[in-house]
Request: fold
Amino acid sequence: MDALISPLLNGSAQGALLLLAALGLSLTFGQMGVINMAHGEFLMIGAFTAYLVQQVIDSSDLSIPVALPVAFVVAGLFGLLLEVSIIQWMYRRPLDTLLVTVGVSLILQQAALQIFPSQGVPVEKPGWLDGQLTILGYDWPLRQVFTILLAIVCVAALAAWLKYTSFGRRIRATVQNRDLAETAGISTRTVDRLTFFVGSGLAGIAGVAASLIGGTNSQMGAQYIIPAFLVVAAGGIGQLKGTIVAAWAVGVVLSCFAYWTTGSLAQVLAFILVIVFLQVRPQGLFTVRTRSLV
Amino acid sequence: MTKLKPQLSLVGIGVFAVLLLAVAPLVLTDHWLGNLGKYCCWAIAAVGIGLAWGRGGMLVMGQGVFFALGAYSMAMHLTLETAGDGVPGFMVLYDPLAPLPAFWEPFRSAAFTLLAIVLLPVVAAGILGYALFKRRVKGAYFAILTQALAVALATLISSTIRETGGDTGLSDFKYFFGFVLNDPANRNMVYLITAALLVVCLLVVWQLYRSRFGELLVATRDAEERVRFLGYDPANIKLVAFVVAALMASIGGAMFVPIVGIITPAEIGAAASILMIAGVAFGGRASLFGPALGAMAVGWGQSSLGSTWPDGWTYIIGLLFIVVILFLPKGLSSVLARFTTARRSPGEQPAAATATLQLEEAKS
Amino acid sequence: MSTTSKRLRALVATGAFATTVALVLAGCGARAGDETSSSKSAGPSCVDTSGSTIKLGFLNSLTGGMAISEKTVSNVLHMAADEINAGGGILGKKIQYVQEDGATDWPTFAEKTEKLLTQDCVGAIFGGWTSSSRKAVKPVVEKNNGLFFYPVQYEGLEASPNIYYTGATTNQQIIPAMDFLASKGVKKLFLAGSDYVFPRTANAIIKLYAAKLGIQIVGEEYVPLDKDDWTTQVAKIKAAKPDFIFNTINGSSNVGFIKAYYDAGLTAATTPIISVSIAEEEAPAMGHEVTGHYASWNYFQSLKTDTNPKFIESWKAYPKSSGVTSDPMEAAYISLYLYKALVEAAGSFDVAAVNAAAKKNTITFAAPEGTVTLDGENHHISKPGHIGRINASNQFDIVWSSDKFIKPDPFLNGYDWFPANVRDQLVKAAG
Reply:
């Protein structure tokens, strides 16, 4: 029983973190076509923000809840800065945004290495996350439950924002037909900037969650970026529900393989599974029907 | 898209060959000649990337995979040559009494190794490319998939420590097909073979670029649908370019091993694959010499600037990506080409053609 | 069509020509079996000892993943060089150091070693951290007959006339840790490590010794060096219910391990951890207090020796200081002093003379960990074994010490549980 419950629950939490990391990408990549390789570094910025907030607010019980919105804004502002300074000149060359943002990510990593202690900084878990929830005889760490709840809240907020607010409507209009949206009086420039702000901000929230799981250092973003992109691709471009299912599936698969084989082999097998899946179904799990040729 | 006449390019390759094969060995110290050899290996892979990405529009972010096929084939052979009849030293460390893994056995043969360096990437790229291009996977998807493959392979090698040497990699080779690697004369020979292979690769792409295939490839990059409507299968055209690029990466990897003396998963993973792209973007992805020269420049920068100013070098390579892609998407060679054409016949710039090209690019 | 084939022929001809030229120019080098040239390939040393300075090379990863550990080692080497220069230098020559960046990339370590030896002509190189970096450097220093001083504890089973090891080998760190566990009455042990050469080899040795001590190994888990998430593995550890966890994880992955460990509700009271890579620098960076866990080292900041207070004070006053001292830092610090002692005993900077002096004399000096002695045969130093328990201020209380300084024994010759046929294989493989 334990051999099934444990990887399932662990994997769900891993998937939730992956989802948090991929959520922002599904906006910037899925909706805008920008391939932001510095997304992992925005996640890192979120984690360092959690550390800095912890320096101001001494109690970790309070600092993590405060850090979540602060990290959202800080990472979002970095994203906005990236959009205004570089990305906005490149919407006609989506593939090149990938290379430009690789450069940005190298610079951000090196800057973090020089600004913060090279060993990384400690981020403490709030006391109210100590303890476990016993499910079918398995002690499920509360920290994992928290990651899942955080992911659910973020997804719900994002979905509601896209669906019910006027900004959300403008984003959807711009994605579906940019020219028509402009004709209708929507400032697509503002929409682009806002989308990028929110997408990068979500990476910041993922960073706070990640800082509770692993080390907070200059290298941390690099381990999330490729899995997050694979999740978005496997889920289907511009499909929130696809991203959710894909993230959860990858998390559980990773955890099961790690439970039954070894941690290293699990990484390889999960990657190969996604790659094979994308060969079979290059459009991802869910697709938007369009009239475009491809 | 160099504006130079084809014959002029051939002269350029000739000059380049003389510089690499005759001048460099005379003027450089052993250390710098070895470094130049290493840059040549990256340049060989870069020539292939120029073909696939610059001319074919496929952003191959996982050339490390094919680099690895060549490099590890060669490294396994050299390791076995050094170990003689026994099991390689590093394997003894993890399980002293187990036999040699089965897949190592054929690499005792020099002929098999050379064949593997050529055939493995061709078969692997053939299968992968066929599956991807027939399913019309392209653009960012293609880039991310290939990058993910490189990450997966690097992790696989890291985790199979007894079979592949893991993160430490394979090193400490004593012989190269019977020649003692420590002998400076032999190291010179290895360098010259590498440089000659680079020249051959340049000749191959030079020929490809001016052939009908080269034109079809560019057409596929710029307007895949139109090519399809004209009755060609873009998948096949792309496949050929992808396979040739993979073969070149494999050759570069194979020569990397005797020159540098070590191969590790870090040389084939995400960061290494991206650095290969950096050189190509920097030099000029679609030009003949751009990719090779760009890769060599990045390699040189890493050796020299990276050593006098390690922190700064990371910023420089980061900025290089941003500035070059943002302002010079066709790389440094485009500056050169603009300069030369402007001087020889001002006003010859085919403005209309460029405009159409940009429009098509915007659509894809 | 005919023009194409003509072109093609021209192409093939040119290619063939280029290759031939290459091979002809190459001439004939030595082939396998020509002993004369294979053994005498290193040219004469180019180290310049005529001036008032001696050049030394420092090779540490200042960028990339390992920079998180190696930057401090580089800084402490600079401090040691400054100290030695203030005291008059080595044989009256001031140290002029060349700092190189290994960039967490093993081929770069090889390239920079060659550069330091053949272009900068340094007398010796100091640095490296991971075993992989050392293994990349080894063939290059051997080929060029240089000297390399390696300051980190490692898996042993290695010997080179061109390398001096100032960190612990297995019988000075792993074996004392196992003796300590046996003395605590541990019956069930779990092995958790990063997936690379040191943990794999160390755990192989641990398993052999555990069988002899009657300790049962209830599980073994590895995670790639660059991955932080240990949640699934910790769930397996918890299910196996070990008395103790033996931790050979390296770098930032340790943080993920410790976090997952506390998330799962494990504590130092029920399932303590003994580490061989968490020291004074790492302990406060875990993001969770780690009080009550153990570490096996040869040096702790809390160690009471005559020379330790001065070392701690100098480091705290050093501009690039991180505030605390640790075992790898101490080993790096003394590596420069070991070189000084060796050169002064030899009266020369020449590699052969230094190695001869190491064999002939008993090189011994007061290090912060105590008075250490060099073993001239295997190039390791004798070290005291200590087990420390982490206290609330992230310092270590020493709870167990070896009764005397442990002589280095990289091939475990003095341990009958280590199978002789395995040792023979290893010695043969090490050449």
About this structure: The two ends of chain C are 59 Å apart (CA to CA). The mean pLDDT of chain C is 89. Chain C touches chain B through 67 residues (CB under 8 Å).
